[in-house]
Amino acid sequence: MNGIGPQLPLSRDYRFGNYSLITSYNEEVKQNFKNLLLTSPGERMMNPDFGVGLRRYLFEPRSHSVGQIRQRVEAQVRKYMPFIKINKLLFDQGKPAENLGGSPLLTILIEYEVPSLKLAATLILQSGDIN
Fold first, then answer.
1. In this structure, is residue 89 part of a structural domain?
2. Model confidence over 58-107: pLDDT tens digits?
3. Element (H or E) spanning 4, and its range?
């Protein structure tokens, strides 16, 4: 099978040419979804609305930012990846927003599916991935 797209971060791999390529639609969807979550609005040329921009929420009080993140993720998925259905969106191991405190450490767990690919997957992002 040929590659579908470049694997990020870029790395040398001569099986497909100069760089590693993603060879499954499941991995391509996961990479694109992660890219949508980590890209800050204004960062993508010619599309200033693209991206959730999780980095800007790292040092915000968690009790205020959880609702904003949830709303932004859902809106961005509807607009840019409407084929994804989000089943679960949890913050900091599923603790209620009022118990999250002021910790700058953020963990987001997203269970999602792509019905057309019969794909069900989980994406976990932690502060180290976001920063």
1. yes
2. 877 777 788 899 999 999 999 999 999 999 999 876 555 555 555 556 78
3. none
Residue 9 lies in a domain: no
Domains held by the chain: number: 1
Task: Enter the pTM of the model.
Answer: 0.84
Answer whether residue 110 shows pLDDT above 70: yes
Q: Is 15 helix (H, G, I), strand (E, B) or coil?
A: coil
From residue 41, alpha-carbon distances to 49, 91, 99, 110 in Å are 5, 21, 29, 20
Q: What are phi and psi of 109, to 5 degrees?
A: -115, 125
Strand partners, 110: 89, 123
What number of CA atoms fall less than 13 Å from residue 34's CA on the CB side?
Answer: 18
